[in-house]
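Lecture notes, continued. The same structure-token format from the folding unit now serves as the input rather than the output. Read the line below as a description of shape only.
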């Protein structure tokens, strides 16, 4: 398949996990990708591994100035921007009563405010190309759980509705915006959490792979999904169906 021939994507958190898998998928189907990540060493390594159609930009997703510069560099490098994948985020597992304001603010900034800044920065370029954006939310942006901390859940719920807001605000500009809601995926964001425990509470009795979510993002970012906007897609091994 070559669904992304002549398409340019910008992916945050693109150096690992779901972001990297999405970059690999889009490049494998003919696209060009800018990987934006805070981790310079890993980002440059991934870009080198994936070849000449991938470019790395160091990005602090909480900085409006860096977002503007990243979009400008994407257009300078590859000529345009067709696809924005707002994928960067961090997790927390501390309960509300033990969460510091500093910890709350950091998680909200990286996981929620970053999506707002990305959409804002990319708007004019996406309008030119009639492009689209995909937001990585979470199943915990839909249902509640004590497994995840309050800031992470609040942020993931917020970006679900932010994506719908942007979809409706920009529908007449020809820009589509959707969100994906992964369950437990075997990525670095899980940290030291007991992966077998997470697999045991998932109906399919396993963790998802980054590639499972990358496939979903690639579909939504492609022209095959031209009639889909303001929608949410869950890939959680049946967790939220319980």
């Amino acid at each position: 398949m070559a669904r992304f021939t002549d398409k340019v994507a910008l992916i945050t958190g693109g150096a690992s996990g779901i972001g990297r898998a999405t970059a690999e998928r889009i490049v494998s189907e003919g696209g060009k990708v800018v990987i934006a990540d805070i981790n310079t060493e890993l980002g440059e390594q991934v870009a080198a591994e994936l070849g000449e159609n991938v470019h790395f930009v160091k990005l602090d997703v909480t900085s409006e100035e860096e977002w503007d510069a990243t979009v400008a560099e994407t257009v300078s490098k590859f000529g345009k921007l067709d696809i924005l994948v707002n994928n960067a985020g961090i997790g927390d597992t501390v309960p509300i009563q033990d969460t510091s304001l500093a910890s709350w603010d950091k998680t909200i900034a990286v996981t929620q405010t970053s999506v707002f800044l990305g959409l804002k920065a990319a708007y004019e370029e996406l309008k030119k190309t009639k492009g689209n954006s995909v937001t990585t939310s979470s199943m915990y942006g839909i249902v509640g759980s004590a497994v995840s901390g309050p800031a992470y859940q609040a942020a993931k719920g917020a970006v679900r509705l932010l994506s719908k807001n942007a979809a409706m605000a920009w529908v007449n500009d020809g820009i589509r915006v959707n969100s994906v809601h992964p369950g437990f995926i075997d990525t670095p964001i899980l940290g030291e959490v007991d992966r077998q425990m997470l697999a045991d509470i998932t109906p399919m009795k396993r963790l998802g792979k980054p590639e499972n979510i990358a496939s979903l993002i690639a579909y939504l970012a492609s022209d095959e999904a031209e009639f889909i906007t303001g929608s949410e897609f869950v890939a959680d091994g049946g967790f939220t169906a319980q």
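Point for the exam: The chain has one domain: 8-235.
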